[in-house]
Amino acid sequence: MKRIVARKFGSNFYRLRIPWRPFCTDASQILSRSNAGDPKKESEGQQYDIAIVGGGMVGLALACSLATRPLTKHLNIAIIDSNPALGRKHFIKKEDLPDPRVSTVTPATISFFKDIGAWQYVERHRHAYFDKMQVWDYTGLGYAKYNARDADRDVLGCVVENKVLLSSLLSRVQDTDLQKKIYPSRLTSMSILPNCSSLEVDSTLSVTTLFSHGRLVKLELEDGNSLYAKLLVGADGGKSRVRELAGFRTTGWNYSQNAIICTVEHAVENHCAWQRFLPAGPIALLPIGDKFSNIVWTMNSKESSEFKSMSEDDFLKAVNYALDYGYGPHPTSSLLGNADIFSWFKGDISRSANDCFEIPPKVVKLASERMAFPLSLRHANDYASKRVVLIGDAAHTVHPLAGQGVNLGFGDASTLSSVISEGIAVGIDIGEVSLLKKYETDRKPANVMMMAVLDGFQKGSRDCYYFLEDLHKCVSGC
Ligand SMILES: Cc1cc2nc3c(=O)[nH]c(=O)nc-3n(C[C@H](O)[C@H](O)[C@H](O)COP(=O)(O)OP(=O)(O)OC[C@H]3O[C@@H](n4cnc5c(N)ncnc54)[C@H](O)[C@@H]3O)c2cc1C
């Protein structure tokens, strides 16, 4: 028994700061001992099991997911991000105006949030489930309507402000027993030395010895702090410093289009997701709760600077025009093809043949600033190397108009925490590249597929889109 346990958990022994007990079979307990509070270690730089660089939605989702798995909930985690919101537990006030940045979250993401205990926090704030979608185009040739009830579902998705998602994940992570420390700073450099196989790893080894034998990665922060971890997770967004420092190459390009986003108010509540194809690109109107909706409007960069700076009145007129009779007539038959950006929400839902075309509710007020985002696609050729792994936008950035980026990132967070848990169960060092490549193998096909769909959509390559839409339904299962 003793030999089996020793073999199983041998590679993790150096994390122990107490004498090993021969008949302890609980891997999570073994990993729970950290060097926190050990003055010798502190002077050398704190040691963690995992350092998550980037406390955005995806980085915090990973922390929550680790906190809820039996084998990972005792890990010692550092979260590095200079966003001041991470220093506060509840940073949303009821009277606050809506965030112009929102995310349409899929049923798969909602299930993930429920699993990690974060959805109950989302439900305390403004959010909007939607059960209907209407897609049409300016030519008047046709429209398509989708209804959750056609597939025996309650909802097609939910639109949530990004600050609500972030605050919910933060509250959840703070309410768990996860040993975590938030560093309000930014990563500036990192170093990893080659593995020295001759090292007999045990609990007496210092942090610097472990580092010099390739068993830890060292992180240097902007504020002068340094720390060590067995695994560094880059969750630091599209311009990832981790990706750059670790030398991951990327493939991608910028589109010659921008998305204008903002939140608007109606006189009545909106419960439907609307999308209309205009000559320059689609405009989407997404319900976010109360009488608010979010606009995501794709156009060329010259138009986007005009629409961003025009008066509120002119902008509201332009939005109402674009969502109603502007550019062309209302459609008279439900003939539109399947090529719409909401396809992944629908999953197995077919069109509602009997639902009539409707005009979206009028926009009466601008409820947030207008923001313009350039559209681009970027994908890291690899997600994992020794002791380093990328998740979320650090691994893949898709253009925002389809509202898929963070859903893909949540999928990464879920899979990575599961792979780390599997590694602990069989006693593998969680920084081992062979383990981390399992995560990459699992996530890359789904992410690449989605990126191809979005790129085909962006370029108007509809044949490619029809084909990939079907393929995507197979891989997403949402
Ligand atoms: C206009 C727009 C609309 C979108 N709408 C949707 C939508 O409807 N649905 C959807 O699924 N997705 C949407 N997306 C995409 C979504 O916003 C991103 O996929 C998501 O924000 C990625 O989350 P992340 O946590 O990976 O990265 P980020 O949100 O970029 O977070 C990265 C974090 O890392 C921190 N950081 C950066 N560098 C460092 C460093 N050196 N050291 C420490 N910390 C660092 C930052 O402070 C930040 O907190 C949209 C994107 C845009 C631009």
Automatic annotation (TrEMBL):
SUPFAM superfamilies: FAD/NAD(P)-binding domain (SSF51905). The keyword Nucleus does not apply. It holds the Pfam family FAD_binding_3. One of its GO terms (cellular component) is extrinsic component of mitochondrial inner membrane. It is a peripheral membrane protein. Residues 48-306, 368-447 form the FAD-binding domain. InterPro entries: FAD-bd, FAD/NAD-bd_sf, Ubi_Hdrlase_CS, UbiH/COQ6, UbiH/COQ6_monooxygenase, UbQ_mOase_COQ6. Its EC number is 1.14.15.45, 1.14.15.46. GO terms for molecular function: 2-methoxy-6-polyprenolphenol 4-hydroxylase activity; 4-hydroxy-3-all-trans-polyprenylbenzoate oxygenase activity; FAD binding; oxidoreductase activity, acting on paired donors, with incorporation or reduction of molecular oxygen, reduced flavin or flavoprotein as one donor, and incorporation of one atom of oxygen. Keywords: FAD, Flavoprotein, Membrane, Mitochondrion, Mitochondrion inner membrane, Monooxygenase, Oxidoreductase, Ubiquinone biosynthesis. The keyword Oxidoreductase applies. It is found in: Mitochondrion inner membrane. Its cofactor is FAD. It comes from the Eukaryota. GO terms for biological process: carotene biosynthetic process; xanthophyll biosynthetic process. Pathway: Cofactor biosynthesis; ubiquinone biosynthesis. PROSITE patterns: UBIH (PS01304). It is an enzyme of class 1 (oxidoreductase). Gene3D superfamilies: FAD/NAD(P)-binding domain. Component of a multi-subunit COQ enzyme complex. PANTHER family: UBIQUINONE BIOSYNTHESIS MONOOXYGENASE COQ6, MITOCHONDRIAL. FAD-dependent monooxygenase required for two non-consecutive steps during ubiquinone biosynthesis. Required for the C5-ring hydroxylation during ubiquinone biosynthesis by catalyzing the hydroxylation of 4-hydroxy-3-(all-trans-polyprenyl)benzoic acid to 3,4-dihydroxy-5-(all-trans-polyprenyl)benzoic acid. Also acts downstream of coq4, for the C1-hydroxylation during ubiquinone biosynthesis by catalyzing the hydroxylation of 2-methoxy-6-(all-trans-polyprenyl)phenol to 2-methoxy-6-(all-trans-polyprenyl)benzene-1,4-diol. Belongs to the UbiH/COQ6 family. This is Ubiquinone biosynthesis monooxygenase COQ6, mitochondrial.
